[in-house]
Each structure stands twice: as C-alpha cells, then as structure tokens.
C-alpha cells in the first residue's frame, strides 16, 4: 500500500458529533446490490443449512478490501473491489484459485508472514489452506505446510500466534457427522487444534479438542488481559448431547485444557452461532456477543477485579438491560422466536460508541421459529443501551441471512455492509449516513511472521473517553475480515492511540488526526499516514 510520512496535514474535519443531544444520529444505508456486481448465492441442501460466509481482505495492495463469498454446493465466488473513495460500491468477478465447491466460509490470514494474505477455506469435506501469490492469486498449500484438511463438515475457525512461535495455531470447529442425515443428534465430530511443528515453518499433526459440541463459531481472545489468548467456542445445542458453551485454556507447550465450574466457568446451553468481542463499557475488559436462536447473549465479566489480581472466567449476561436480546422479529407480524447468525461490532455513525449488527434467518423452514426475520442493527446510546435502527437505516432485510462483512469498502470512513443469504443473492449496502462523526482507520504491522499483529489490543483515546478493540482472526459466523480497523471518534479532531503488541506491554501513544488512515508499525515510533490511490 502507498504510504506517506505523517506530517498531519489532515483532511478538513467536516463531520459533526454524530449525536443530537443524547440521541444517536440515525445511520442510513442505500442498497447497491444490483449495481455492485455482487450476484453470489449460497445454496444447497441440509449440509448447507449452516455456513454461508464471506471473507473480506485486500489481496492486491490497493487498500480496498476484496471479497470471497461461499457458494455452498456451487463454487465460491471471488470479487475484486473496484470502488473509488466515497463512491458507489463496485466489485468485479475474477478467477483467483479460491473457487471451490462445498465451501461454508473462509478466513484471511497471512500464515507464512510474507506480507501477502493467505486464506483458510472451510468446506464440507477437506478444508484447504490457500497461499497468496500476490495480485489476488492463490495456490494450495496443505501439503507444503502440513495442514490437515480432514474430511468433516467445518463450521468454525480461529487463529492466534502463541508466544515464542513463528507460525500460527489454528483451531477448526467441526459440526455433525454428515453421514448421519436421518439421526444426526449426538453425532458432533471432533474439533481440532493445529499448532506449529517444532523448529520450522509448517504445522504439526492436529490435536483433537474433546469433548466437541458442534460449534458454529470460535474466537481466540485475551478475555482477562493476561497477554495470552484462550479459545472461546459457541456450540449449537440442537445436535449435541450433554454439551455446553466452552472456553479452552491454551498455553504454549501445554495441552489445551477446558475451563470448568471449579475455575468459575458457568454452565450455559444455547444454540451458539456467532461470536464477537468489544470493550463496551471502558473498563478494560471485553464484552462478548453470542448469537443464538431465540435468546442472544451479551456477556461481561461478573466480578472484574479492582486490585490488579487475575479475574476468574465468570461471566454474566447483560443482553436484556443493554437491549440486545433481539429474540423476536422487531417488525412485521411473525412473532415466533428469531434465529441469529453473524454478529459484529462496528461504529456505524462514528459517534465513538460501538454498534451491533446481527444477521437473521430461519435454519431451514423450522416451524417453531420466525420465517420473516429481519436483520438487526442495534445502535448504542450514550447510556450504554442499544436502540434498534435497522428499519430506519434500511438494512432490515428479511432474506435468510447467514454470514456478513461489516467493512468500509469504499474507504470514506463509514462502515458498509455485505450480507450472505441462503438460497437468494447476497446483498450489499453503502453507508451514506449524514451528520456522522469523525473517524480513524488503522492498520497494524510488526516485524516477524505475525505481520498483522493478530492478538494485539488497540486503545483509542479522545475527549469522549477510551475505546479498546482486539485484533483477532476468527469469530462471527464463518466470516473473516483482515484490513483497516475502524474507530468513530465523534467531534474529536485527533486521537491518541496505544497498542499492546502481542506478548508485550502497551506502546507509547501514536498521534493520529481525525479522518485519516494510519499505519502503525511496531518498528516505527510514529504513525504513517496513508491515502487511498483512487
């Protein structure tokens, strides 16, 4: 990407505070599916009732995020992003080497640290790791890298760099035994953990994570600010027997260990389908959204310590008081319970408060659940409560949604939206919110093989207070994103940004002016401004 040394000759700060009194500015989106060039459909029979993801990442170095959309029984489709800054969303279909059939989802990650994005492709059948060759071309790397693709029904993924390793650890979540179509209950297949092999690049043989309970999302996350991530797993209670939500303690050189009741982990059984984390209350610890059927969760640490001691993995649900249960359709006449899939936190009106998108859609004409189930866009208010604005924003589609990408596709500082639907075309919306606040977008990079600083924590300070976001690879619902990290900053004209680089303490502050893209390089003491090439 083109870089310019930061002299902070910033763009004019034209945006307002994104807030009229205590009422958030209503976000506005315009649907551009027809003109965008996106025409992908995720389709298939029972093995594709779950899945339906999208990966968003820049693979040609222009700073605009390109997309790979799962096709289910049909081949996946890759699109190069041809948008211009602030313009309509435009994508062009291109052959990339990623056009496999039986794809449920995908996640971008630079596995070998060469500065070119690779992609982990989840499938019904063998999973495939594709090495990026540059200019959005990819080649199979399973054999060269020792990646065990298996032959399961894969529906979840997460990755991290364990301390001391130059190669990532990858977790793969597998769903039910697909040979048991008539009696699938109790047939959850083992999840696996692939760690680096000793003494060089590539993966060691996989370790099974037992017990496994049919996960639909996984996320490596530093929930306790220890500098070491653990593996959260959202499991689908529809098919497991005796299962629950899980979190694995993952420590370098040690076998993974499940957190238990004795550790403080609470028993919870839901139809876990998606995971997302964000520090919503500024206490330094993340909250976690977990999507489900009927009863979505928002978990926060039950007793965060005030004396600097290590917290226990005990969480309480605050979805109801915060207004994010989203358990029934918020509009229309269908009053049956909802079915939620992809979840993601982004600030859609740039007021400095993270908002929550939830993709909705019936599994497969399940009669006890809503068939007309609009997506949710829950906008956070100053009091920490969320307000439903999907209808006002124009993203309240009732298509059968699955995965999504909540990304600034045209690099105008406003987060756009792409949603994958089952048995109908994916949809694309451009964010056109009037009166939105200022923003910054950051890209982290560090020397070594973890070039994108997976596992880092970013803190942005303005007059509004502090925001914290973890750089992760995983979560959502079979949908991954690697690119610019977006923060709304309201009326602030600059921000102080600190980074807790993986395995280290907090950095000194980087100064970043409003409405700028900035590259934060661990080896460089100041931020570097970047300007879109078109």
Share in helix: under 10%
Strand content: 35-45%
Radius of gyration: 21 Å
Q: What is the total tally of β strands?
A: 41
Low-confidence stretches: 1-16
**Helix-strand category:** mainly beta
Mean pLDDT: 94
Shape: globular
Task: Please outline the major beta sheet.
Answer: 9 strands, antiparallel
* Total helical segments: 4
C-alpha end-to-end distance: 12 Å
What can be said about this structure in brief?
With 534 residues, the chain is mainly β.
Describe the secondary-structure layout.
Elements (H helix, E strand, L loop, with lengths): L3 E2 L13 E2 L2 E2 L4 E3 L1 H4 L17 E4 L8 E4 L7 E5 L9 E3 L9 E7 L8 E8 L2 E7 L2 E4 L1 H4 L6 E9 L8 E6 L16 E4 L12 E3 L5 E7 L8 E6 L10 E4 L7 E2 L15 E5 L8 E5 L5 E5 L13 E3 L1 H4 L17 E7 L8 E6 L15 E5 L5 E3 L1 H4 L7 E7 L8 E6 L5 E5 L6 E8 L11 E6 L2 E6 L2 E2 L5 E3 L2 E6 L3 E7 L9 E4 L2 E6 L6 E3 L4
Parallel strand pairs: 5-36, 32-40
Antiparallel strand pairs: 1-41, 2-3, 4-31, 5-6, 6-7, 7-8, 9-10, 10-11, 10-13, 11-12, 13-14, 13-35, 14-15, 15-16, 17-18, 18-19, 19-20, 21-22, 22-23, 23-24, 25-26, 26-27, 27-28, 29-30, 30-31, 32-37, 33-34, 33-38, 38-39, 40-41
């Amino acid at each position: 990407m083109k870089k310019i040394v930061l002299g902070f000759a910033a763009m004019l700060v034209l945006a307002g505070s994104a807030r009229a009194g205590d009422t958030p500015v209503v976000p506005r989106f315009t649907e551009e599916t027809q003109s965008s060039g996106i025409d992908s459909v995720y389709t298939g029979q029972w093995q594709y009732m779950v899945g339906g993801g999208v990966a968003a990442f820049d693979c040609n170095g222009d700073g605009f995020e390109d997309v790979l959309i799962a096709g289910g029984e049909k081949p996946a489709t890759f699109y190069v992003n041809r948008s211009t800054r602030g313009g309509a969303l435009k994508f062009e279909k291109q052959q990339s080497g990623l056009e496999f059939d039986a794809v449920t989802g995908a996640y971008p990650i630079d596995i070998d640290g060469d500065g070119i994005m690779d992609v982990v492709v989840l499938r019904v059948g063998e999973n495939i790791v594709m090495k990026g060759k540059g200019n959005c071309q990819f080649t199979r790397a399973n054999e060269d890298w020792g990646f065990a693709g298996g032959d399961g029904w894969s529906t979840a993924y997460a990755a991290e760099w364990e301390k001391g390793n130059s190669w990532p650890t990858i977790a793969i979540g597998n769903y039910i035994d697909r040979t048991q179509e008539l009696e699938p209950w109790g047939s959850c297949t083992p999840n696996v953990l692939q760690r680096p092999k000793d003494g060089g690049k590539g993966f060691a043989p996989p370790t099974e994570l037992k017990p496994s309970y049919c996960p639909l999302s996984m996320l490596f996350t530093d929930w306790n600010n220890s500098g070491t991530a653990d593996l959260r797993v959202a499991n689908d209670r529809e098919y497991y027997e005796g299962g629950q939500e899980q979190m694995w303690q993952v420590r370098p050189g040690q076998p993974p260990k499940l957190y238990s009741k004795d550790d403080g982990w609470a028993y919870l059984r839901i139809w876990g389908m998606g995971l997302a984390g964000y520090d919503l209350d500024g206490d330094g610890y993340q909250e976690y959204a977990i999507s489900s059927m009927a009863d979505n969760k928002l978990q926060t640490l039950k007793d965060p310590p005030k004396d600097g001691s290590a917290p226990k993995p005990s969480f309480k649900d605050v979805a109801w008081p915060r207004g994010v249960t989203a358990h029934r359709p918020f509009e229309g006449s269908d009053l049956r319970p909802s079915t939620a899939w992809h979840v993601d936190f982004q600030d859609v009106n740039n007021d400095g408060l993270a908002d929550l998108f939830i993709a909705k859609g019936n599994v497969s004409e399940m009669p006890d659940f809503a068939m007309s189930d609009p997506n949710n866009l829950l906008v956070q208010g100053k009091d920490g409560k969320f307000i439903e604005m999907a209808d006002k924003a124009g993203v309240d589609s009732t298509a059968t949604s699955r995965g999504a990408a909540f990304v600034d596709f045209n690099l105008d500082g406003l987060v756009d939206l792409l949603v994958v639907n089952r048995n109908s075309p994916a949809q694309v919306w451009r964010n056109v919110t009037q009166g939105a606040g200022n923003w910054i977008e950051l890209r982290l990079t560090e020397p070594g093989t973890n070039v994108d600083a997976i596992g880092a924590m970013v803190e942005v300070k303005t007059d509004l207070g502090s925001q914290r976001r973890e750089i992760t690879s995983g979560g959502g619902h079979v949908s991954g994103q690697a690119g610019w990290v977006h923060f709304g900053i309201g009326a602030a004209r600059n921000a102080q940004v600190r980074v807790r680089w993986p395995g280290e303490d907090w950095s000194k502050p980087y100064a970043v002016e409003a409405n700028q893209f900035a590259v934060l390089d661990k080896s460089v003491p100041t931020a570097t401004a970047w300007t879109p090439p078109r």
